[in-house]
Amino acid sequence: SQQGEEDPQALSIQEGENATMNCSYKTSINNLQWYRQNSGRGLVHLILIRSNEREKHSGRLRVTLDTSKKSSSLLITASRAADTASYFCATVPNEKLTFGTGTRLTIIP
Amino acid sequence: DTGVSQNPRHKITKRGQNVTFRCDPISEHNRLYWYRQTLGQGPEFLTYFQNEAQLEKSRLLSDRFSAERPKGSFSTLEIQRTEQGDSAMYLCASSFGGDRGPKLFFGSGTQLSVL
User: Fold this and answer.
1) Which single residue of A8, A86, A87, A92 has CA 20 to 30 Å from B40?
2) CA distance B38 to B101
3) CB-count exposure of residue A62 (10 Å: 0-12, 13-18, 19+)
4) What is the mean pLDDT of chain B?
5) A3 and B CB contact within 8 Å
6) Who among A33, A95, A99 is closest to B42 (CB)?
7) Which class for A73: exposed (0-12), middle (13-18), buried (19 or more C-beta within 10 A)?
8) Across the interface, do B109 and A101 touch by the CB < 8 Å criterion?
9) Percent of chain B at pLDDT exceeding 90
10) d(Cα B105, Cα B115) in Å, to the nearest integer?
11) What would the pLDDT profile of B31-62 be if each residue is shown by its tens digit?
12) Do A41 and B42 touch (CB under 8 A)?
């Protein structure tokens, strides 16, 4: 079963704009991670935020975590065509990562 | 290339046949995971190993599925008597360490089509 759920399911923006996607989850977590998946490929780890952290940055990525609301957001600034992909949040309710349903991001050149 | 390697990349089989996939993790990684992903969905956990020990199996993993990791190195996932519902991308991932929820490194997956 899916632990997390991303919102929106699909998002299309113009190149250069910022993209924000959200993740809600159900149980308490140790950490939350975001992954990117290009079509037909494996997933690539983007960023990990621990349950005692509220915000984290990595390059053009900014992740926030609100454990009281059981939610996280991923912001991609100054989007590029290469950012077109599916983005998944993954949580750790026990020993293994459980993935959400994903947000399909399309960057329009 | 020192990433996670999966073979084959694509497999087409007829219903009822057996198939086996192989995963070679990053060499120093002690944990190895198998996930299954269908179109438009996120990866679903199947099973994972710490070294050669299989520590957890999902209820999704029927008795037609078996996974091994002899000597704690590469792993194989076998599906017996395949069904059309087994058609999916099978993803392998590896990680290092004993922390809960370590960062995973994924292979490119094996796309299975059951006709």
Assistant:
1) A92
2) 23
3) middle
4) 93
5) no
6) A99
7) middle
8) no
9) 82
10) 30
11) 999 999 999 899 999 999 999 999 989 987 88
12) no
